[in-house]
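Tip: read the tokens left to right.
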């Protein structure tokens, strides 16, 4: 199976840059490009899992979206308006978005 554009059921909305521009990531091909070219952090366990998921053609679109969402949460760039994947309840999503700041998430409180 070759790498393909697998569409997601709902976009993951992120704010990857300093300009505050929102980016709606809708599929694995777009996620690969964002992870490679625009990601604000260089390392992280969720980032590595997301990179692997979006490059693995055997992973479902849902699993790729879950991994991308988790990496965006780890980087602090997912927006509050993004619908969390079923495995990550929306009530446990990030309180705020913002890059490079250490902050507590609701589930950590």
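Filled-in amino acids:
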């Amino acid at each position: 199976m070759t790498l393909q554009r697998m569409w997601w059921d709902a976009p993951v909305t992120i704010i990857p840059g300093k300009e505050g521009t929102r980016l709606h990531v809708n599929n694995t091909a777009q996620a690969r490009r964002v992870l490679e070219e625009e990601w604000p952090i260089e390392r992280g366990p969720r980032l590595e899992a997301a990179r692997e998921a979006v490059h693995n053609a055997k992973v479902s679109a849902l699993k790729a979206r879950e991994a991308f969402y988790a990496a965006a949460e780890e980087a602090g760039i997912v927006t509050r308006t993004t619908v969390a994947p079923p495995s990550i309840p929306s009530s446990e999503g990030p309180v705020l978005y913002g890059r490079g700041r250490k902050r507590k998430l609701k589930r950590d409180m």
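The beta strands are 7-14, 23-27. Residues 91-109 have pLDDT under 50 and may be disordered.
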